[in-house]
# Entry
Amino acid sequence: MKTPRLIVMLTYRDRTVKDAYRIFDECKNTKAEIWGFKEEPLPPAEMKELYDYMKSCGKRTALEVVAYTEQECIAGARLAAFCGVDYLMGTLYFDSVRDICRESGILYTPFVGQVKERPSILSGNVDDMIDEAVHYKEKGIYGIDLLGYRYTGDAAALNRTFVAAMKEHDIPVCIAGSVDSYQRLDEVKRTGAWSFTVGSALFENRFDGTFAEQIDKIYDYMQKPV
# Structure
C-alpha cells in the first residue's frame, strides 16, 4: 500500500491566508512536495507569483476551488490555467471545466457528492458518489477530491469504502479537509488514498510545533506503519 501524499494548503477555513508567500518561504525546505491554496481572496497576480516560486523550489502545485455553479467553476479553471498549477482540485464537475484543464495540461480532481457552503459540507450516498466518480473518469478526470471529514455521515467509513472502490477503477483520491489529528492520519493511511490535504489544522497548531515542524511531523508520521 502506498503512503498517501501530504498536500499542504496555505488556507484557513477554506480561504487562503494573506501571508501565504511568507509562510511558504519559511517552510520551503520541509519534506512536503505538493503545496496549494484556495481561489480566494488573493489577487490572481499574487497567486501566480507564489505558484511560480513554489515551482522554482521543486514543488508540485494545486489550486482548490470551492465553487458550485458552472460559471464560478469555469472562472476557477481559468485561474488555475493562468497560474499554471499542476492540479485543479474541487469544483463540481462540468465538461467545460474539464476542457480547460485538458487544454492547459492540468490534472482535474473534482468533488463528488452533494457539496455546499464554505467551509464545505458533504452529504450524499456513498454508492452514488462511487457511480459519479466512475462516470467522471470516463469523461477524462484525473482523480477525485473527497471531502471525507466534512461528511455529514460516518466519515471514516465513507473514506474506506470510497477509496477502496476507486482503486478498482484506478482513480486517485485526495481526502481533503479537516484532517486534524493523528487518529485521522491513521485512518487516511489505512485507506491508501493517493493524497490528503492539511490546512487549517496547521494554523491551529493541532500537531504541536511551528508550521514547518508540524509539516515534517505529519510527513514522517505517514511513513510509519499503522
Q: What stands out?
A: The longest strand covers residues 60-65. The two ends are 11 Å apart (CA to CA). The chain has one domain: 5-223.
